[in-house]
Structure formats: C-alpha cells, structure tokens
Design brief:
homodimer, 355 residues, alpha+beta, 8-stranded antiparallel β-sheet, 12 helices, 48% helix, 15% strand, globular
C-alpha cells in the first residue's frame, strides 16, 4: 500500500452524508482480539511479536477479496507517517508509539483498519460517516468471523474474549460515536450531557481518543463496559442515548437561532472570514473556527460550502497532514503559515465553485 | 443644493491620490472671519443672526463663478442631515449643534465649505487630498479676498482679525493635516510624537476635531497659535514638522515588516476577512479594521483594493451616512447590521473587479 496516495484522498467516513451527519461525524466499532497460541504482548519478546505479525498479516491479506485491504508495516514507518495515520484515525496513538513488529491493514475507502500488535494482537476497527452503528457492526462482524475461521482467538467460556487489559475482556468491543456539539458547548449545557452519560457508564473523549482534549467541539462517546453484556446490548446502549443528544444539540441550535440569529450568523461568518484570509493560524484556532463554520452550514447561515469540505479540513490541517502535503518537515510556526495557506486555497476553490 | 445627491458621491479629498496620501489623508485650512457691522454671535439675537446669514449667503452665492458653491440652510435641516454633514467634514459639530439662522456653502467637489454663523460669522474651509497645504492656502486666500472685497471684516491694526474666541484672534487661521499613523500606534512610538508636537505648540486631535477620540489611528495635527505670526509662518510650522512624522511612521512600518512580516500580513488579512464577512459590526471596530487594511494596501500586503475605497468606507460607515444610504432612521444595533452589509457589498464589488 502506498501511504503517499492517502494525501490526495480522504476517508469515506468524512463524506458527511451518513445519517444525522450534521451532528454525528462518524460511528465506529472496534474489537480487541488475541491469538490463543501466543502470550499477550506485555510478555512477548521481539521474536514472538514478529511471528504474530507475520501470521496475522497473512490472514488479513487473505481477506482481500472481501475488503480490498492494503497493508502498512508500521514498524518501518517514520514518526511523521505514523502521526499522519493517527490523525487520519487509521491507527491508534498506541500503535504509533509502540515498538517492534506491527502493522495495519487499511481498506481503500479507509472504513476498515485492522491493527496488528497494538495493545492486543489484533484490533479491528470499522468506521462509517454519520450515525450508522448497525452498518459498522455488520461489517466488523463479518471480518471478525472471517479471521476467526482461520485462527484460534484467546477465549474463555467464562470470561469471553481475553484481552491484554482487563477493561476489554468479554466482548472486546468499543462502540463509539463522534459528535459535533457546538451549541451544547455555547449554551454550557454540555456539562449536563457529561453527567447523564457518566451515570450510564458511557465515556466522553476528544477527537483523538483517550486522554485527548475535545477540540472544535467534537466529543466521542463510547462504552466503558465490555463484560457481562452482549455486543448487541453494548451497541444498543449507545444507539439509545445518541438520538437524545442529537435532539438536545438540535434544540440548542434552534434556541441560539431564536435568541440571536444575527449574532450567530455574525460569529459563523467571521469564523469563515478568518479561515479564508488568515496568513498564520494554529491548529487549535482552526478547529475552533471550522467548528463554527460547520454549524453555520447546517443552520444555512453559510451557502455553497459542503459539509465534506469542512470535515476534510479538520483532518487535513493537522500537523502531520500539512507536512505530508508540503513534502517537508515543518516547525510549528511554519505549519501555522502552511495551514493558513492551505485553508485559503481550499476555501477559495470552494468559493470559485460557488460563483 | 440637493443634500441627497451627496450620498451617492464622496469628497474629492478622499480620492487618496494627493502627495504622501499613504500617510496623509488630507490637508485643511480654515479662516475665521466676522463682519465689522454686526456684534459677535454670543451677543447677536435671532434677528441679527438672520441678517448676517442673508448678507453672507448673498456674497457666497456671488462666488459661484469661482467655485460653483451650493448652499444648504443648516437651520432647517433635521438632526440626521446635520450629522451627515459633520461626518463628511463639511460642517463643524458647532455649526450642527448651534441654533437659529445658519448655513454652509459647499463646492461641488466638497473641497470648499463656507460656514455662516458657526462660532464666528464666517468660517471658511478648504480641504485637499494628501499633503497639500500650499494648494489649500492658495485657494482659501482667493476666496477670502473675494469676500473681503465685498464686506468689511472686523479687523484691528493691532490684533488683526477679531474673532468670537480669543484663541483665533490675529490670523484666524487653523492649519491642519489628518494623518494615518497605525505603525506609530502599534509600536507605541506615538506618545513621543505627541510630546514633540506639544513642545512646538501644535495640537493633536481625532478624526472629528476638538474633543474627539483618535479612532482608526487617525490623528489631526493643527496649530494652536493664531496671533503674532503670519499665515505663512503658521503653515510653514506644520509643513516643517509633518514630513518628520511621515518619515517616522514610514520607518515604523518598515520596522514592523522587518520584524514580523507574516504577523503583520496576518493582522491585515484577518482585518479584511472580518470586514468582508461580518454580519454585524460597530463603528469603532470598523475604523480599527479599516485602519489595518489601509496600512496593508500601502505595504502591498493586500492587492487590488484602492486606497480611495478604504478612505470612502471610513466616512460612509459612519452612523448618519448609513441612515442616509438606507433612507431610514436606524437604532445602533440596526446600524451595526447595515454597516456590515454595506461593507460586504462594497468589498465584494472590489473583489469582483479584482478577479
């Protein structure tokens, strides 16, 4: 697989046209699996890691007929390429920062990524644009079954799938939904959402998973419990709660419009004006302004800009993406200038199309 | 004279093409005169005021062959129209806020305005784009002579021209130059300029004369002394000092570019982006942002925008101008929306021409 080719495309899950995509960026399910014949990675030496990679890679490459996967040997990638894949949501920060033999199989549309030697031997992930957990589940289930028909997973009748960290034991499933909640943030109602989710044992995180800050008003909601419930029950818990949050965000957007349409229109338009004209801009400010513009598109306060363009810009203005696009390593100040220049170019192209 | 027609034009002095017009907006000379046969206005009743207006108006209308003056009866104008003329620099705030018979003769190009019954019986003003005090002096001198050939001014051999306020006695001249000094403000060097001017008895004021705040980095420098010096000496004092200030501002602009070209480019571009996109904007923010853009044009950080467009926008986004353009009275919040809409329209038209 050619990693460079990814710089000219973007993941299908960013197309911004899935169900409820004005508020739900993407849906994701991942499964953690380990091979029965090898120790967990915490106890595996380099040789064992290498054996695991070779074996699982061959199984992944056998799946080709099903999902057209390309394979990347993450162990031989440089820091920038690994960071690029993290920004793109194709590998986890853990896989990027780990050591030894490891890799990832990625489907052409970037909906599927199968990581080898992350925290577990195998971490499978399926992504979809919008609120589409059923589709994710259907696809990941097929992949899981296909691999399981070839290998023996570490499984206990009592505990279920065994995993390196006890928090994943049982189903090994993590179901998550990435939500864009600017109105709940603006109205400070977001704290109530956090409290409600905590009570039903769901976790809230930022754009880049565990420990990351919620930038640009993006919140990832996911299950914490993997044991004692079926996969379907875990999915259903998220599926039940997300429509309430969507509805809450929607009501707050309408409330903001009702209270001060002009003020909101002004905020959104100024955000666009700055993104369209700045000569230097930080990643954080970019996320913040893109978030405003994204809500503005949904509320029809901005014409002629596609949600997919804005979704792409969230990813493509990240540090590693800019360096890949620019074909050179860039210091933070250089990145801010390249980011501004990239935003001007993309938004002026969109502008030209609009006229 | 039809006041409405002024809403579709702008003063010649805004064309931004006079000498040093990147830094000097305009040059102005005014002369204060009183008629010997009448008491000063502080002691004139309504009947006397009316007599003065009738007499001076006829003399002004006789000047027509020379400067094609239109006459406005300020006493019968409503508040909005008077404020409009103040914003346009055609009448003083004093004339607007005074009472009884009063008026102004205005030349077609708005370079000449002759106010009757302001603080003195007659206040003559000549304006020019850029640094052009000699032209102002030549023209105002001709007008003064032409009127003096028809009337008897209050004049004392010992004191010179007599005026209602002793600060104007002697020559009755006020020579002023409106400077745009954003780099001296940004680098905080402006205080040194103030101190130096104070030492040589020159006054510094804002865009709208005495008591007004310096908005948008505009500073009006003028003489305070009118007695004991000839008109030429007063003009020479300003003519001597202004090139130093121009040079100082120019050096600070270059210094800013040298120290942080990108930062300055960013500031200027964001200012443009906000003006081009905002949905509501105050007069103060507009002045501040236009000031950045104006410097940006001079420093070639912004292409394709004319200095004259920006000069016009400073005047046309003032409250009374917006209400005249919109043909209705507007509350402050409404003005902010109309101002933003006007800026978007003007700047998008300039944008379209550029492409």
């Amino acid at each position: 697989m050619d990693l460079e080719s990814l710089t000219t495309t973007s993941g299908e899950w960013l197309r911004g046209s899935g169900p409820e995509s004005a508020i739900v960026i993407s849906s994701r399910i991942r499964l953690a699996r380990n091979l029965a014949q090898f120790p967990f990675l915490t106890r595996a030496d380099d040789g064992v890691r290498s054996e695991i990679e070779t074996l699982l890679r061959s199984k992944i490459e056998n799946l080709d007929s099903q999902c057209n996967l390309g394979y990347l040997d993450v162990g031989t990638l440089n820091d920038l390429d690994r960071q690029f894949l993290v920004e793109r949501q194709l590998i986890s920060r853990e896989l990027a920062e780990s050591h030894g033999s490891r890799g990832v199989g990625i489907s052409e549309e970037e909906n599927v990524s199968l990581m080898i030697n992350e925290e577990d031997h195998l971490r499978m992930q399926v992504l979809r644009s919008g609120f589409a957990l059923d589709d994710c589940w259907r696809e990941i289930n097929l992949i899981d079954d296909a691999i399981e028909s070839e290998v023996t997973y570490a499984f206990s009748e009592r505990w279920g799938y065994l995993t390196a960290c006890p928090t994943n034991v049982g189903t090994g499933i993590r179901v998550s939904v990435m939500l864009h909640l600017p109105a709940l943030v603006l109205t400070k109602e977001i704290q109530k959402v956090f409290q409600a989710l905590q009570k039903i044992s769901l976790a809230v995180r930022g754009l880049y998973g565990e420990g990351s800050q919620a930038m640009g008003d993006f919140y990832q909601i996911s299950n914490q419990v993997t044991l004692g419930k079926s996969e379907e029950q875990v999915i259903a818990a998220i599926q039940d709660v997300v429509p309430n949050i969507i509805d809450y965000e929607r009501r707050m957007r309408n409330e903001l419009i009702k209270q001060n349409r002009q003020g909101l229109h002004d905020q959104v338009s100024r955000a666009y004006g700055i993104l369209r004209n700045a000569q230097t801009i930080s990643s954080e400010e970019t996320m913040h302004l893109l978030s405003s513009v994204r809500m503005g598109i949904d509320l029809e306060l901005i014409d002629g800009l596609d949600m997919s363009t804005i979704n792409e810009l969230f990813i493509q203005t990240q540090p590693a993406h800019l360096q890949k696009i620019q074909h050179e390593p860039l210091e933070s100040a250089e990145r801010n200038a390249v980011r501004a220049s990239y935003l001007r170019r993309r938004l002026s192209a969109a502008d030209a199309e609009r006229n």
